[in-house]
Amino acid sequence: MAVAELTGTPSLYTTRTTHHRYQYYSSQLSYVSTRLSNYRRISLRPHYPRTNQNARTRCSVKEAEAPVALQTEDPKKKPECYGVFCLTYDLKAEDEIKSWKKLVNVAVSGAAGMISNHLLFKLASGEVFGPDQPIALKLLGSERSLQALEGVAMELEDSLYPLLREVSIGIDPYEVFQDAEWALLIGAKPRGPGMERADLLDINGQIFAEQGKALNAVASRNVKVVVVGNPCNTNALICMKNAPDIPAKNFHALTRLDENRAKCQLALKAGVFYDKVSNVTIWGNHSTTQVPDFLNARINGLPVKEVIKDIKWLEQEFTEKVQKRGGVLIQKWGRSSAASTAVSIVDAIKSLITPTPEGDWFSSGVYTNGNPYGVAENIVFSMPCRSNGDGDYELVKDVNFDDFLHSRIKKSEAEVLAEKRCVAHLTGEGIAVCDLPEDTMLPGEM
Ligand SMILES: NC(=O)C1=CN([C@@H]2O[C@H](COP(=O)(O)OP(=O)(O)OC[C@H]3O[C@@H](n4cnc5c(N)ncnc54)[C@H](OP(=O)(O)O)[C@@H]3O)[C@@H](O)[C@H]2O)C=CC1
Ligand SMILES: O=C([O-])CC(=O)C(=O)O
């Protein structure tokens, strides 16, 4: 039976040959979908989930039964349908069902951007949430990117990910963030030539204020939010302040890329593989004032200073290399880190959903609310965290400070506080007064 016959409505994807594929490897299929003006839901709902291996095996079956519509779905009641993710299908893999988890809803903004182009495929593959975790991707774009988003959805279709059960695209965060359990907020306006940082803070701040409100209204009450779009600390604060019904602890600004960069540089200098480097904290802002902490970091379980005796290198070269790594990469590549950022988002999520190895920690920009380090309260600041794998985290108590570390942290803290004053109108804290330190820069600007 042809897909178009099942859906009964014209669709963007119904004429594409990809449908034949599903006729090969799914023995009992029914096709349903929705297409709203700016919100397109492409869903593939499992009645009987299958494993990767199973999917591949089924792909090679040449003679399969025609798709059969499920009694519970009434295609006539569905809005316009398209795409392979519209499928509702029924696979009898009884034994496997028990080991599959409940669908997880993951929203991604800036979904047609460069970082997302790497990240979405990692999410869909099971690399992030695991091989037994079906996933729904909710992709947020804009009028600008709606066509591109359809292209992203098509590529996801063509990747045949067994775990990917739903893909929806849209430009209204109130629709896209519905029931989101993870919100990966990547989309943000890049700073253009001649643009004041205060203007960037305001433009992007408005995006994150709106998205915070939307999360507050429609997302899961325990949604975990990872803000990537720059300036990510301040954007995360704005988002959090506009989502008062979601725990402040659930908001993160991504500084994991900086941690990974720091680990790489320490490994290089020490002549060890980077898995030997642990306990690396990035303190502060995701900017050139960030503080890669070599005082508490370890190499092969030893304090870094016992392995790398060149203190001048640690204080100057290492610190600056990490702070400006993004900018050097932009000079080489002509665009900012995308693949390694996606990898670091994966790392950041995994750090929250798997127990932190004994004695180690990870960095994340989190809300300072009763922090044990004397960092100013009521800001988003990168600090060392541990998780027991339930999506939550605790700050690490047992860390050392010396004058160098302390003074650098204070500089980054001053910058975050200045950024915060620039966006007071967006956090509900009065009138904005923007007086930023002159050297305030994103890692990519130098
Ligand atoms: N925290 C970190 O470690 C890192 C953060 N970043 C930051 O991540 C963000 C995304 O980077 P990347 O994916 O490479 O960027 P891209 O330029 O490829 O994508 C950014 C997306 O942002 C969206 N966007 C939202 N508002 C605007 C606007 N006003 N003007 C233009 N685009 C807008 C666009 O999507 P749409 O049109 O759909 O809205 C666009 O697709 C940037 O802010 C970057 O600085 C980058 C690297 C590391
Ligand atoms: O400044 C940018 O857009 C890139 C960035 O954050 C980084 O590379 O760390």
Automatic annotation (TrEMBL):
<keyword id="KW-0560">Oxidoreductase</keyword>
<keyword id="KW-1015">Disulfide bond</keyword>
<feature type="domain" description="Lactate/malate dehydrogenase C-terminal">
    <location>
        <begin position="255"/>
        <end position="425"/>
    </location>
</feature>
<dbReference type="GO" id="GO:0006108">
    <property type="term" value="P:malate metabolic process"/>
</dbReference>
<keyword id="KW-0809">Transit peptide</keyword>
<dbReference type="InterPro" id="IPR010945">
    <property type="entry name" value="Malate_DH_type2"/>
</dbReference>
<protein>
    <recommendedName>
        <fullName>Malate dehydrogenase [NADP], chloroplastic</fullName>
        <ecNumber>1.1.1.82</ecNumber>
    </recommendedName>
</protein>
<dbReference type="InterPro" id="IPR015955">
    <property type="entry name" value="Lactate_DH/Glyco_Ohase_4_C"/>
</dbReference>
<dbReference type="Pfam" id="PF02866">
    <property type="entry name" value="Ldh_1_C"/>
</dbReference>
<keyword id="KW-0934">Plastid</keyword>
<keyword id="KW-0150">Chloroplast</keyword>
<dbReference type="GO" id="GO:0009507">
    <property type="term" value="C:chloroplast"/>
</dbReference>
<feature type="domain" description="Lactate/malate dehydrogenase N-terminal">
    <location>
        <begin position="105"/>
        <end position="252"/>
    </location>
</feature>
<comment type="similarity">
    <text>Belongs to the LDH/MDH superfamily. MDH type 2 family.</text>
</comment>
<comment type="subunit">
    <text>Homodimer.</text>
</comment>
<dbReference type="InterPro" id="IPR011273">
    <property type="entry name" value="Malate_DH_NADP-dep_pln"/>
</dbReference>
<dbReference type="GO" id="GO:0046554">
    <property type="term" value="F:L-malate dehydrogenase (NADP+) activity"/>
</dbReference>
<dbReference type="InterPro" id="IPR036291">
    <property type="entry name" value="NAD(P)-bd_dom_sf"/>
</dbReference>
<dbReference type="InterPro" id="IPR022383">
    <property type="entry name" value="Lactate/malate_DH_C"/>
</dbReference>
<keyword id="KW-0521">NADP</keyword>
<dbReference type="InterPro" id="IPR001236">
    <property type="entry name" value="Lactate/malate_DH_N"/>
</dbReference>
<dbReference type="Pfam" id="PF00056">
    <property type="entry name" value="Ldh_1_N"/>
</dbReference>
<dbReference type="InterPro" id="IPR001252">
    <property type="entry name" value="Malate_DH_AS"/>
</dbReference>
